[in-house]
Structures are given as structure tokens and as C-alpha cells.
User: Which sequence fits this backbone?
């Protein structure tokens, strides 16, 4: 979808219009929309870390609309799922909880999309997205090639990744693959989480 003078999503609710706005639902749509697109480029998710100082962006804003989710492997102990970068992060966590896939529950209610979760290495309550992430598939807008980064190749640190560096900033996250456990293994060691639970309490995701 290509539109003009389109509002740019941002959680501050600042009314900023993009001269050209593209929402892509596939690699092919992204490639086609890049051809001849006016620079500068701005790639946004839900805009939770985006603060506009003006009411217009003179360039092209790209928004990831890839929201597929696919089970790649399920051996009864672990489920490996590939999730589109445009999938809303908290909706993915809710999906995992509903299906009994463990590992993402501490990261509930964090705003943004799956793609930005990998870029930021989001974290909460003693858990980080790198703990469950297998790989990241990107489109390099400089070389116009698909790339796949394993966990180590993502260069994760506290709230950072390779994708936030000058070398990695040209990689647009298309999808992220996660490995989640089918066995309960709740992370309750952060701060005083455990003290709020009765001794011997049976914890479940339901």
C-alpha cells in the first residue's frame, strides 16, 4: 500500500504526515516500493521510540505489515516459530501464552512490533528477547539482498543489537524465529517477584 500525506504512527500521538507512506506485506512489495522512492527513508513500527519535532516528514516512511506466524518445528518439548516483523509484540506474547509456549511471558505488555523487539533486544523482569531468539531475517536496503543472522550474529547486549549500529542499520527486519518451551519454566528471580507468590503455589499460564 502506498499513500501520500499519511499520518506516521507514533505512541506520543504527534500529528506528523509523511510525504510518501508505504506499508509492505512481503519482500516483493518492499523491493518494488524502494525503487524510485524519495529519500530520506524512515522505517517505523508502532513508533514507541519516535518523537517528531515537526508536522511533516519529507521523505518515504516504510511500515512493516508482515504479520504471518508459522510453526517450523514442534518436537513436543520445544516449538520453533517464525513470526513476521510487523506482528504486534504483545499479541505474539498472548499467542504464545494461549498455546502453552513458555519463555516470552515476562515480556508481556511491551509496546512495538516483533521486528523492533529484536532490534532493541527488549527486556523486562529478568528476561530479554535474545533468550528465546533463534535467528533474524532481514532485507539489506544497501545491497538489496536477504540476510539471515543467527543469535550470535545479532550482537546482542543490554538494549542493543547489531541492527542499531551504523553497519547494521540498513537491515530491515522481515521476520524473527523463536524457540519456546512446552514445559513450564517460569523466570521469577527478578527483584521481588517471588515474594508475591504463596509458598508452594502452582503457577500456570491459564
Assistant:
Amino acid at each position: 500500500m502506498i499513500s501520500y500525506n499519511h499520518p506516521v504512527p507514533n505512541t506520543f500521538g504527534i500529528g506528523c504526515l509523511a510525504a510518501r507512506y508505504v506499508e509492505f506485506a512481503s519482500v516483493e512489495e518492499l523491493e518494488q516500493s524502494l525503487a524510485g522512492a524519495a529519500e530520506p527513508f524512515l522505517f517505523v513500527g508502532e513508533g514507541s521510540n519516535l518523537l517528531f519535532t515537526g508536522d511533516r516528514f519529507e521523505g518515504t516512511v516504510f511500515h512493516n505489515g508482515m504479520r504471518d506466524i508459522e510453526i517450523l518445528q514442534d518436537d513436543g518439548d520445544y516449538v520453533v516459530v517464525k513470526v513476521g516483523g510487523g506482528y504486534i509484540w504483545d499479541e505474539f506474547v498472548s499467542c504464545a501464552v494461549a498455546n502453552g509456549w513458555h519463555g516470552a511471558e515476562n515480556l508481556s505488555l511491551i509496546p512495538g512490533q516483533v521486528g523492533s523487539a529484536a532490534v532493541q533486544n527488549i527486556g523486562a523482569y529478568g528476561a530479554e528477547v535474545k533468550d528465546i531468539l533463534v535467528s533474524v531475517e532481514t532485507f539489506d536496503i544497501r545491497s538489496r539482498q536477504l540476510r539471515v543472522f543467527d543469535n550470535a550474529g545479532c550482537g546482542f547486549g543490554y538494549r542493543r543489537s547489531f541492527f542499531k549500529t551504523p553497519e547494521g542499520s540498513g537491515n530491515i527486519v522481515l521476520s524473527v524465529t523463536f524457540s519456546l518451551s512446552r514445559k513450564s519454566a517460569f523466570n521469577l528471580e527478578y527483584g521481588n517477584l517471588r515474594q508475591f507468590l504463596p509458598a508452594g503455589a502452582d503457577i500456570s499460564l491459564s
Remarks:
- The mean pLDDT is 91.
